[in-house]
Design goal:
Elements: E1 2-7, E2 14-19, E3 22-28, H1 30-33, H2 43-53, E4 62-65, H3 69-83, H4 88-102, H5 105-115, E5 125-127, H6 131-140, E6 147-153, E7 160-168, E8 171-179, H7 184-194, H8 203-209, H9 218-231, E9 232-234, E10 240-242, H10 258-265, H11 278-306, E11 310-314, H12 321-329, E12 335-338, H13 344-359, H14 384-394, E13 399-400, H15 404-416, E14 421-424, E15 438-442, H16 449-457, E16 467-471, H17 475-478, E17 490-493, H18 511-515, E18 531-537, H19 543-556, E19 560-565, H20 577-585, E20 591-594, E21 597-600, H21 613-616
Parallel strand pairs: 1-4, 4-5, 6-11, 11-12, 14-20, 16-18
Antiparallel strand pairs: 1-2, 2-3, 6-7, 7-8, 9-10, 13-21, 14-15, 15-19, 16-19, 17-18, 20-21
Helix pairs in contact: 3-4, 6-13, 9-11, 11-12, 15-19
Length: 620
């Protein structure tokens, strides 16, 4: 049975293909169109999935869309009615789009599929599971658990903003839902907006900013009290009630009532280019604390309702790796599995899996050791010929290696010498994290590496942290964690023996002072609270990346390197050798490794293209 899942028309459009329950391919549309968070119909992602699956669109048993558009339209109408006459401007803006496109989504999907060769007379099943069922399915079905609680938390689907479900065998039963307009995801997005970051893409910046808050400052408790007394009520089961007097997302054109928020917190809404000050950092820490408490309470409620020993998670809030680390430390469950593409892109995969197991009633087989995501390396790959043709196109100079071990040793030597290296190997990752398939790498021992990567390679805010990739079996030598974290979705502390004590005035330092204090012998991956967003690297899922880190260990004694996504600010992660070479030449990266080829920046011809990536990509 061959099933295609699709997510589209909001943000992070994607497609996923499963064959008899096995995940074959999945990719986000943004990687092909080069438009970050592309919401359009995922024609390129669908074409890739079908090509990789070796079939035409007319050989599918079902095509599954990740939510129910008519139910979402019902929510929109009921919300405007409940808030009327407020929101008339937003209503007049939204309605033409809904009536023209989303009301007739089935017809629109069919029209787009015809462009891909779909024969309408064949009448392939077109199915529409609910949004949070798609999220729940994306987490539970690839997990290694026969039975588990499932927690999904995001902004909003149709009506649901969070759900608790029970997964047992092939079945998922939704037990409890939190409903719009009350939403933990939208609350976090509101603070993202107020603190000057872009909604639906800047939430991870807010998470990275939070540790720069001063935990000893009385402002933290003051801000938390304001949040919990004025903005929300946080219930024992983790559900939140949001006071709509302070929010504008239900019927307005922005997230919050800025005047009321400015009066509450005592400072203006931050603009994207404004300096980050202590009040911004402290408010970021306060909302992160509130979010973590809500997630832990929801997880406790999931445990109470299900009695399950294991937990699966999906939805945009499940990408909050700091919260995930705290939840794991709470030891409510024996183990937790988080869908690596936890946002809407992963809904495409979950929709296909829900159709296979629930609609078509197929049994679930749990036969893998870890999970069924294949390390999340589910996207396109490339051939040596593509690399050579890219080199010819740009008259690029390269060295080709016949022995990958030799290439790994040379790359490790270059890393140890302080170079920044673009690393492209095998299939592209599915989800927002680069996991050693499309990554930029550096030496974690180098105190200047974080600054160099942020300012000269990624061209982004200097406070943004970087993740360590560590050989799975050596994780506990560097971090206070001995488990697996293959998808970079857990934050845990750096091991105590590797830390350096902070000066007496550390909490009183400004952001810059904290940022450039060397906190451990892994300064480029140690965040200011001594934490790190860990990726454990496994030989079974990424043997080439494993070999590189092992070569770095043999050379330096350290089984860990810096890993960040291969892109500049506002650009989707690179997909092809062509994308990679262009990004390499437009930044201050030192070397580029694509498959068995190494490109040295010093040997490359002058880059004559004068296009400006800041104009090409909308900055996130």
């Amino acid at each position: 049975m061959k099933i295609l899942g699709i997510s589209a028309f909001y943000h992070d459009s994607a497609a996923a293909f499963i064959d008899n329950g096995e995940i074959v391919a999945a990719a986000q549309e943004e990687r092909f169109t080069r438009k970050k968070h592309d919401p359009g119909f995922p024609s390129n992602a669908i074409a890739f999935c079908l090509e990789y699956g070796g079939l035409s669109i007319n050989e599918l048993d079902a095509i599954v869309f990740y939510d129910k558009p008519l139910l979402k339209f019902e929510r929109l109408l009921e919300t405007y009615y409940a808030f009327a006459p407020k929101g008339i401007r937003s209503f007049l803006t939204a309605m033409p789009v809904w009536i023209k496109e989303k009301m007739f989504l089935k017809r629109l999907i069919n029209e787009e599929l015809v462009k891909l060769g779909y024969d309408k007379n064949r009448k392939v099943k077109l199915l529409f599971p609910e949004h949070h069922l798609s999220h729940a399915a994306s987490a539970y079905y690839p997990s290694p658990f026969e039975k588990s609680a499932i927690l999904t938390i995001d902004g909003v689907g149709e009506w649901a903003t969070a759900s608790i479900s029970m997964g047992n065998g092939k079945d998922i039963r939704i037990l409890k839902e939190l409903r719009f307009p009350h939403s933990l995801g939208l609350l976090y997005s509101a603070f993202t907006y107020f603190l000057g970051f872009r909604v639906n893409s800047g939430e991870y910046k807010l998470m990275g900013l939070a540790p720069y808050g001063n935990p000893t400052s009385p402002d933290i408790k003051k801000y938390e009290q304001i949040i919990l007394s004025k903005l929300i009520e946080l219930k024992e089961d983790g559900s939140v009630w949001l006071n709509q007097e302070y929010f504008d997302y239900a019927t307005g054109l922005k997230m919050v009532d800025e005047h009321k928020w400015e009066a509450l917190f005592g400072f203006k809404t931050r603009k994207p280019d404004d300096a980050l000050e202590s009040m911004h950092c402290n408010l970021g820490l306060a909302i992160q604390n509130v979010t973590e408490e809500a997630v832990i309470r929801m997880a406790k409620e999931a445990k109470r309702l299900t009695g399950a020993e294991y937990l699966c998670m999906a939805g945009g809030v499940a990408l909050n790796c700091v919260s995930n680390g705290k939840l794991q430390k709470a030891n409510l469950f024996k183990d937790i599995f988080i869908q690596p593409a936890a946002g809407d892109a992963g809904g495409a995969l979950g929709a296909a899996q829900a159709a296979y197991h629930i609609y078509f009633n197929n049994e679930r087989k749990v036969t893998w050791k870890a999970d069924a995501m294949h390390g999340s390396y589910l996207g396109p790959t490339f051939s040596d010929l593509e690399v050579i043709l890219t080199a010819k196109k740009y008259k690029a100079v390269y060295t080709q290696y016949n022995d990958f071990k030799e290439l790994s040793r040379e790359t490790a030597r270059l890393l140890a010498a302080g170079n920044v290296i673009g690393w492209i190997q095998g299939r592209m990752e599915f989800g927002p994290r680069a996991l050693g398939g499309r990554s930029i790498l550096g030496d974690p021992r180098n105190a200047e590496m974080q600054k160099k990567l942020n300012l000269k390679i990624k061209y982004r805010e200097s406070f943004r942290p970087f993740a360590p990739s560590v050989l799975a079996e050596e994780c506990s030598s560097y971090f206070e964690y001995a488990g697996n974290s293959p998808y970079m979705l857990l934050v845990h502390p750096v091991a105590k023996q590797r830390r350096k004590p902070v000066p007496a005035n550390y909490d009183a330092m400004d952001l810059r002072g904290k940022l450039y204090f060397q906190r451990s012998d892994l300064p480029s991956v140690t965040h200011i609270d001594y934490s790190a967003r860990i990726q454990t690297v496994h030989k079974e899922t990424n043997p080439r990346y494993y070999e590189l880190i092992n070569s770095f260990k043999e050379l330096t004694g350290y089984a860990v390197i810096v890993n960040t996504s291969f892109n500049v600010r506002g650009e989707p992660i690179v997909c092809t050798p062509n994308d990679a070479y262009r990004c390499f030449m437009r930044t201050e990266m030192d070397y580029l490794v694509i498959g068995d080829f190494i490109f040295d920046k010093k040997q490359q011809p002058e880059w004559l293209e004068k296009d400006n990536w800041k104009e090409e990509f909308v900055l996130d």
